[in-house]
Specification:
Layout: E1 2-7, H1 15-30, E2 34-39, H2 45-57, H3 63-80, H4 85-112, H5 117-124, H6 126-141, E3 146-149, E4 156-157, H7 168-184, E5 188-192, E6 195-198, E7 203-205, H8 211-221, E8 226-231, E9 252-254, H9 255-263, H10 274-278, E10 284-288, E11 297-300, E12 312-325, H11 335-345, E13 350-355, E14 361-367, H12 371-381, H13 383-388, E15 393-406, H14 416-426, E16 431-436, E17 442-448, H15 452-462
Parallel strand pairs: 1-2, 1-8, 2-5, 3-5, 4-6, 8-10, 9-11
Antiparallel strand pairs: 6-7, 10-11, 12-14, 12-15, 13-14, 15-17, 16-17
Helix pairs in contact: 1-3, 1-6, 2-4, 3-4, 3-6, 4-6, 7-8, 11-12, 14-15
The protein binds adenosine-5'-diphosphate, aspartic acid and magnesium ion.
């Protein structure tokens, strides 16, 4: 089998963890599989890089920032490559040069005092670039040939810095040209997650948590047999285990269930991960690098639907409810179209839409960092309707959260919405708005952010999601 394995931040969070990741990759190779590894940055590193860039643009940069980045990587190199002095020296030298370049960039920011998304991508992707050679060293120390490869050589994207989209034809070509000969020779390439490059070679990133997406893109490009995502929990669970302690790992879920969950906040999977793999039907496994014996979750076409209809419940925070309201909206065609067009032109993502049947208001949810921009665009696009009084107000409320109830079998299972409302009602949670996807695989609700955790727990209890269903 050809397996693309991705290791998340905590799975490469220390020398010991990188050693364990190397063991897992080497084990699969020794079992006869072709293995491609994708790595995240060591945990916490991406946050530190972003904070350093933001501080620098505010005028603050101190050498302790780079020392702080340097040290864990240096230590890991020493611990993981004890036998190969030449390789160790090379890794230490490359680490030094990369951190020097990072320092230069930060010092530049303290002078120009401007941080574009493009520059932020050049800085925030450094964690993966520092980690890949170390994991590759650790694999080589265990007796399997390996080399680090920067994904800027493989994945071609558009120029939406911060959330770039892959151009699959070019990516497929480059990835196959570069990786196939290595795989034929039994090497394990270790690829940097999260980063990519435009056609012109400028570094982009795929969005926070994007290494999962990298693994899926590489898996699709290589027609891999499986994509394995190694993380720090036993798989995709019926709810966020931090919010619902009794949440249970689901053994099998479908691509559509995984997409819905990831889209509505299940951090375990980057929300675009399923896109590249589902057309080719490549199964994705979510596995625990801290508990590798556990079989984890398999994401596939069928996904073993649950008798209960509902399989999982999730929530998404840091979102804002945009409301366009006015009694004069009734009967005036095109307001919704104008509004949605304006949001699309801003490239802001709409998480859910709801319109009261009275047509007195339209509301939709966007990510909070985009809310101010969206409001401005709406006020400008609907200026005339505001002036004529068709619309009285356009407002944003960022004290809300979206809770999503997900399951393929919800389609055709009666009474689910009723049960959700009963559960929320008896827990005293007020539902601000509701929307049901036409696929009927998802019901999403807007609640006050302060009530979101209770809403998730109440729904989890009502559907007895802590009990095995199959
Ligand atoms: P990695 O660094 O491996 O990419 P992440 O921190 O991005 O890992 O994602 C794993 C985390 O996602 C888990 O530790 C868990 O706290 C959180 N999480 C949120 N919702 C879910 C869910 N439904 N199932 C599993 N984990 C979830
Ligand atoms: N290191 C990146 C982040 O923290 C990408 C990832 O971990 O998937 O967002
Ligand atoms: Mg992640």
């Amino acid at each position: 089998m050809l397996i693309v394995m991705k290791f998340g931040g905590t799975s490469v969070g220390s020398a010991e963890r990188i050693g364990q990741a190397a063991d897992l990759a080497v084990k699969a190779a020794k079992e006869g599989h072709k293995v491609v590894v994708v790595t995240s940055a060591m945990s916490g590193v991406t946050n530190k890089l972003i904070a350093a860039a933001q501080d620098a643009v505010g005028g603050f940069y101190h050498k302790t920032v780079s020392d702080d980045l340097h040290e864990p990587h240096r230590q890991a190199i020493h611990l993981l490559a004890p036998n190969d002095a030449a390789r160790r020296r090379e890794a230490i030298e490359s680490l030094r040069l990369r951190i020097e370049r990072f320092e230069t960039l930060c010092k530049g920011l303290t002078m120009v005092r401007e941080l574009t998304q493009r520059t932020l991508d050049a800085i925030s992707g450094l964690g993966e670039i520092l980690c890949a050679p170390i994991l590759s060293c650790a694999i080589a120390e265990r007796g399997v040939a390996s080399r680090p490869i920067e994904a800027t050589e493989l994945i071609v994207t558009d120029d939406q810095f911060g959330q770039a989209e892959p151009l699959m034809a070019e990516t497929r070509q480059q990835t196959r040209d570069k990786l196939t000969p290595l795989l034929e020779q039994g090497e394990i390439p270790v690829i940097t997650g999260f980063i990519a490059a435009t056609k012109e070679g400028v570094q982009t990133t795929l969005g926070r948590g994007g290494s999962d997406y990298t693994a899926a893109i590489i898996g699709a490009a290589l027609d891999a047999d499986e994509v394995w995502i190694w993380t720090d929990v036993d798989g995709v669970m019926t709810a966020n285990p931090g919010e619902v302690p009794e949440a249970r790992t689901m053994r099998e879920i479908s691509y559509s269930e995984a997409s819905e969950l990831a889209y509505y906040g299940a951090k375990v999977l980057h929300h675009k991960t399923i896109l590249p793999v589902y057309k080719q039907g490549i199964p994705v496994r979510i596995l625990n690098s801290f508990n590798p014996e556990n079989s984890g979750t398999c994401i596939s076409v069928e996904g073993r639907p649950s008798e209960r209809g509902v399989k999982a419940v999730t929530s998404i925070r840091h979102v804002s409810l945009i409301t366009i309201s006015g009694k004069g909206m009734q009967g005036i065609p095109g307001i919704a179209a104008k509004a949605l067009g304006a949001v699309a032109a801003e490239r802001a993502n709409i998480l859910m839409i709801s319109q009261a049947s009275s047509e007195n208001n339209i509301c939709f949810v966007v990510n909070s960092p985009e809310a101010a921009r969206v409001l401005k665009a709406l006020r400008s696009a609907l200026e005339l309707d505001l002036m004529l009084g068709h619309i009285e107000d356009i407002s944003a409320d960022d004290s809300i959260a979206v809770v999503a109830v997900v399951g393929d079998r919800m389609q055709g299972t009666p009474g689910i919405a009723g049960k959700v409302f009963d559960a929320l009602g008896s827990s005293g949670v007020n539902v601000i708005a509701i929307s049901q996807g036409s696929s009927e695989r998802n019901i999403s609700l807007i609640v006050a952010e302060s009530e979101a955790a209770e809403a998730v727990r109440a729904i989890h209890r009502a559907f007895e999601l802590d009990q095995p269903s199959q």
